[in-house]
Amino acid sequence: RKEVEQDPGPFNVPEGATVAFNCTYSNSASQSFFWYRQDCRKEPKLLMSVYSSGNEDGRFTAQLNRASQYISLLIRDSKLSDSATYLCVVNGGGGSNYKLTFGKGTLLTVNP
Amino acid sequence: NAGVMQNPRHLVRRRGQEARLRCSPMKGHSHVYWYRQLPEEGLKFMVYLQKENIIDESGMPKERFSAEFPKEGPSILRIQQVVRGDSAAYFCASSPDRASPQHFGDGTRLSIL
Questions:
Q1: How far apart are CA B46 and CA B56, in angstroms?
Q2: Is the four-CA dihedral B94, B67, A102, A53 of positive or negative sign?
Q3: Is A71 within 8 Å of A23 (Cβ atoms)?
Q4: CB contact under 8 A, B43 and A97
Q5: Max Cα-Cα span within chain B
Q6: What pLDDT digit, counting tens, does each position of B13-46 carry?
């Protein structure tokens, strides 16, 4: 099983659509979870941290299920500017909590 | 308030040459991390440094690669005798402590001819 596995994509959606990304991770010791976005040939940028209780930031909602080691990201009312690759990221847990493990990412294109 | 600064943005080297990649962390950040992104792959952890110390280099290839973060100046990732397989984007990240979210620089895109 890959350390962090994401929907392979790509996703093409019209403006205003709701889109969901799924991610699973293999390291049960992981303690911190994040969604980053990466624009083409740019650096990853932190979108949001993911908490066990679920959290929302505007149009973005993240969920975490520790029992099934599953993370999700929901984007509502998608905008053209949401077009990017979305990266699911978990930390190493325990003494390696600084070590981030990235999924390969899911490419989203929002069309006018 | 400058973010993580990496230079150069693009670096071209011939096989057998040396590549030096530089990273200045965000102001107030003393923890630096290097990641490598091969084409069509996710970012992979390479090394974690604090000032003058290598904390974890478990992701570094055993040969040709080294990293440092001196008391003064930027962190340096050094690749000796580069080969075609070293072509990748190298990202540096920094944080104020090891548990806080990491902020990434623009990356250095290394191309080996």
A1: 8
A2: negative
A3: yes
A4: no
A5: 38
A6: 999 999 999 999 999 999 999 999 998 888 999 9
